[in-house]
Amino acid sequence: MADILPVLLLFGLGEDETGRLLYLVALLLLVSAGVARYRGRWPKALSHLGIWLLIVLVLVAVYAYRQPLMQVAAPVLSELAPGRAIVVTAPDGARSLTVSRSRDGHFHLEGEVNGTSVDFLVDSGASVTTLAWHDAERAGLAVDGLRFDRMVQTASGTALAARARLDRLAIGPYLLSDVAVSVMPRGTLPMSLLGMNVLNSFAGWRVEGDRLVLTARPEA
């Protein structure tokens, strides 16, 4: 094929036209080889052709109906991977994230803080998203330079927290920038909390049985 290319270019064919012609020639040779192989065995050839056509039709159907199929599959996928947000696109184009309730009865959501994976506990009672010390440190925040001067109420009682801002916070495919957070002192919070300031960045959120549904804004 490489030897034919300069000859075809001499006949005024551009590179795109030449590439398509070579592709068609290769396809013709492949089909011809298949026909030669099945010569005298046409029933078997038709049987194999029917199988391939059925496979192609199934793939086309799955692609064409991928959105409603994803809506049906979302609960199953959420159960298989608790804490992982499953993106669902409705027929009208609206997108939402679905998360299943974990075995402890709470909703856990995997997010990325400045590119670092963080397991959040969804807490609608927290007005501001709060990072545990170890998560803030892993995400590259200068925790040793923070001022812990903000009084907050935790499940263990009153504690002091520090104010900070995140460059990037990703929830599923949705990215938030310059997010205000609180950081707790070392050993005072076992895991980070996803608070209302992040939940309210979505168009809406609701709990449907054992599923948390976050509705994305139209422009997201």
List keywords for this structure.
220 residues; alpha+beta; 7-stranded mixed beta sheet; 4-stranded antiparallel beta sheet; 6 helices; elongated
Write the layout of secondary structure elements.
Elements: H1 4-10, H2 15-37, H3 42-64, H4 66-80, E1 86-89, E2 95-100, E3 108-113, E4 116-122, E5 130-131, H5 133-138, E6 148-154, E7 157-171, E8 174-183, E9 192-194, H6 196-199, E10 204-208, E11 211-215
Parallel strand pairs: 4-9, 5-8
Antiparallel strand pairs: 1-2, 2-11, 3-4, 3-7, 6-7, 7-8, 10-11
Fraction of residues in H or I helices: 25-40%
Q: What is the CA–CA distance across the termini?
A: 47 Å
State mean pLDDT (0 to 100 scale). Answer: 77
Briefly note the CATH topology name of the largest domain: Cathepsin D, subunit A, domain 1
Could you name the CATH homologous superfamily of the largest domain?
Answer: Acid Proteases
How would you describe the shape? Answer: elongated
Low-pLDDT segments, ≥5 res: 7-13
CATH architecture annotation name of the largest domain: Beta Barrel
Q: Tally the helices: what do you get?
A: 6
Taken as a percent bin, the fraction of beta residues is 25-35%
Q: By helix and strand content, what is the structural category?
A: alpha+beta
Main β-sheet, in a few words? Answer: 7 strands, mixed
CATH class descriptor of the largest domain:
Mainly Beta
Would you count the extended β strands for me?
A: 11
Q: What oligomeric state best describes the polypeptide chains here?
A: single chain
Radius of gyration: 28 Å
Q: How many discrete structural domains? A: 2
Helix and strand string, N-terminal first? HHHHEEEEEHEEEEHEE
